[in-house]
């Protein structure tokens, strides 16, 4: 009778299990590394948003403020109008409570031209008004009267009327609005928003991080800014 020698498969199974465990650990490490890289790149891009706009004429307040708000916005967007109309009240309250270096806002152009056909014209007009030191006056009137010019064929004449109302030199305003220089500023801002992967308006950053679930109430916006000031150890001045 011949002797039959059998070999146990336990050793092979142990080796296979070890390979699976090691492979899983390596996969997790790769995923975590990739996620960390993605977050770091996103934060880097968000920080660059603030850095790029430090001395722009569309800045409200001290560009070196403790809290920097950057709003990518569309003049024909109803939600943007909501934010644009309430923010000056928030700004006034914060400045009075925490001082002139506590808060700033930078408006960035992000016209959603596929659904808002007059938004690009409005952006050119606001930038042209800024060349005469009246960006914020044009900003306010465009949002306040959005329903009057937003979906009409004669938006250009409507907005020119607003330019007269705020006392602009009309020849310069029209020349600047139609100039390549002004249009490039607005178009570059639009390109920047797309490169950042922004998906909606208003898309608002606070100190480089997106303000998610943004409410259009002055109270909510102010509370969130005050929370950031508290995090930065900025105390009320009175």
Automatic annotation (TrEMBL):
The lineage of its organism: unclassified sequences, metagenomes, ecological metagenomes. One of its GO terms (molecular function) is oxidoreductase activity. Belongs to the thioredoxin family. DsbA subfamily. Keywords: Disulfide bond, Membrane, Oxidoreductase, Redox-active center, Signal, Transmembrane, Transmembrane helix. InterPro entries: Thioredoxin-like_fold (IPR012336), Thioredoxin-like_sf (IPR036249). The chain crosses the membrane at residues 18-39. This is Thioredoxin-like fold domain-containing protein. SUPFAM superfamilies: Thioredoxin-like. Residues 56-226 form the Thioredoxin-like fold domain.
């Amino acid at each position: 009778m011949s002797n039959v020698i059998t070999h146990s498969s336990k050793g092979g199974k142990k080796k296979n299990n070890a390979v699976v465990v090691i492979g899983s650990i390596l996969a997790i490490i790769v995923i975590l590394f990739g996620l960390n890289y993605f977050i770091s790149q996103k934060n880097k891009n968000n920080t660059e948003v603030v850095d790029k706009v430090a001395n722009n004429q569309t800045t409200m307040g001290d560009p070196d403020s403790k809290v920097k708000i950057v709003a990518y916005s569309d003049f024909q967007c109803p939600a943007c109008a909501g934010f644009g109309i309430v923010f000056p009240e928030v700004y006034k309250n914060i400045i009075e409570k925490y001082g002139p270096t506590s808060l700033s806002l930078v408006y960035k152009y992000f016209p959603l031209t596929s659904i808002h056909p007059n938004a690009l014209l409005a952006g050119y007009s606001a930038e042209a008004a800024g060349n005469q030191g009246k960006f914020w006056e044009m900003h306010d009137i465009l949002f306040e009267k959005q329903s009057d010019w937003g979906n009409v064929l004669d938006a250009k004449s409507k907005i020119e009327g607003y330019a007269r109302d705020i006392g602009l030199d009309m020849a310069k305003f029209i020349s600047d609005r139609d100039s390549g220089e002004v249009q490039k500023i607005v178009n570059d801002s639009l390109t920047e928003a797309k490169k950042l992967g922004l998906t909606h308006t208003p898309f608002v950053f606070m100190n480089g991080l997106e303000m998610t679930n943004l409410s259009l109430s002055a109270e909510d916006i102010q509370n969130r800014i005050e929370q950031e000031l508290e995090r930065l150890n900025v105390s009320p001045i009175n």
